[in-house]
Design brief:
CATH class of the largest domain: Alpha Beta
Order of helices and strands: EHEEEHHEHEEHEHEHEHHHHHH
Distance between the termini: 29 Å
Strand content: 5-15%
CATH superfamily of the largest domain: Glycogen Phosphorylase B
Number of helices: 13
Strand order of the largest sheet: 2-1-3-4-5-6
Largest sheet: 6 strands, parallel
């Protein structure tokens, strides 16, 4: 049986390492033997921190120290680490283009020649975006038959039950931004905005938040802006949209591709200084009239919600020719049936919780405060558990329905 080794920068938490972990996790769900290999890369990750970043420990992937170079095995590496595939001479090598721009920076530093990417007849290219596909096929000259599309999907924290509010009454005049991207242009934008105090907007840099905290902030914000480079199909615009934010971007990198950032063209404006008044005018209109604009992003939210199902479908299409059919076939209809049964069970749990609350209230009325407090705490814990379970079940049911329709 094939072993699929996935090479990943150690101690790092960005979109790339997360996607590498998601691939390993999904492959194992289908019965493949997939394992992570961590490598320390200069200037990536925090020295001395855990090899596996705490935000990625949830995937529980097995770890190997090195890969076995055998004809039946597969080694996957991100585009920023192509030289690590040179010692994989007997099996299939996969270079996964999680970005274009990051590759150019990494390879420029190491003076790694493009030609080496074409010399290995057993090298296959995966692309995370249409931007990357365009680069690999039309700039590097890789044959289309050696290129497979495999994008990514978002963490469950960014998806809510159907009662998520898309009403302005539930939104604050917060404009979110990534302080690590397009810094020079964004600073000019903010400096210009500071001269006009008539708009009660709070500009919120997304820095120092956990994924859970990010999701909470996005659920009450009105807009996310991103005028920096889009080296791949970036996560934060999709995370913001899934949480109910409007999204305004520039046109750099993948943002120029409708297949990668499928939002209406009016919400994409070149990051040029002469466009700052136009950009600010659009921002002010969105925050002031959120209800009018949010409907334009419904197709984008649907696109994002369907990405996990598409990821699995594309993953199987890419790996089945390399490692054989999945040992555990996916049965969407069975998943949907089980998920609906879980919803029924959850309804029963809610009834039990309500009964527990009634007993807690009676205990308080009978002047047994200690018992009442203890029961109320247990009820609160149960409510939290059911809320989390309901969110996961909503995702499962959506996924089952999407897979069943595919």
């Amino acid at each position: 049986m094939s072993v699929i080794y996935i090479i990943c920068p150690a101690r790092a938490y960005t979109g790339g390492p997360e996607l590498l972990h998601q691939l390993c996790y999904k492959l194992r769900q289908y019965g493949y033997d997939s394992r992570m290999i961590y490598v320390d890369i200069p200037d990536i990750g925090i020295p001395g921190s855990p090899m596996i970043h705490p935000n990625l420990a949830k995937y529980g992937n097995p770890v190997s120290q090195e890969f076995a170079d055998a004809p039946e095995n597969i080694v996957v590496a991100p585009e920023t680490l192509p030289w690590l595939l040179e010692s994989a001479t007997r099996g299939v090598s996969v270079l996964w283009w999680l970005s274009v721009d990051n590759y150019s920076k990494s390879v420029a530093v190491l003076a790694y020649p493009h030609e080496k990417l074409l010399e290995n007849p057993r090298l296959v290219h995966f692309v995370q975006s249409e931007y990357a596909r365009d680069f690999v096929e039309n700039t590097l000259g890789v044959e289309a038959k050696k290129v497979c599309y495999l994008a990514d999907y978002l963490r469950e924290e960014y998806f809510l039950p159907p009662d998520l509010s898309f009403s302005a009454s539930a939104r604050l005049p917060f404009v979110l931004l990534n302080p690590q991207k397009g810094v020079e242009f964004t600073n000019k934008l903010l400096q210009t905005a500071a001269k006009n105090n008539s708009h009660s907007i709070k500009w919120v840099p997304l820095a120092g938040y956990t994924p859970e905290q990010m999701a909470v902030l996005m659920r009450v914000s009105s807009l996310y802006i991103d005028f920096g480079p889009h080296p791949g199909m970036d996560r934060i615009p999709r995370e913001a949209a899934a949480c109910g934010c409007c999204v305004v971007t520039g046109r750099d990198g993948s943002a120029a591709y409708a297949a990668d950032v499928p939002i209406p063209d009016m919400y994409k404006i070149d990051a040029a200084e002469e466009n700052i008044p136009r950009i600010l005018d659009l921002i002010y209109h969105i925050v002031a009239d959120y209800d009018r604009h949010i409907g334009a992003f419904a197709p984008y939210r649907q696109f994002v919600a369907a990405q996990e199902a598409r990821f699995e479908k594309d993953m199987l299409a890419a790996f089945s020719p390399l490692a054989g059919p999945p040992p555990i076939p996916f049965d969407a209809a069975n998943l949907r049936e089980k998920t609906e049964a879980c919803f029924t069970a959850a309804g029963g749990l809610c009834a039990t919780i309500a009964e527990g609350m009634t007993y807690a209230e009676r205990a308080f009325a009978d002047r047994r405060p200690d018992q009442s407090r203890e029961m109320a705490e247990l009820v609160d814990e149960a409510l939290l558990a059911v809320t989390k379970a309901n969110r996961r079940l909503s995702l499962l049911l959506r996924k089952a329905q999407t897979m069943d329709e595919a």
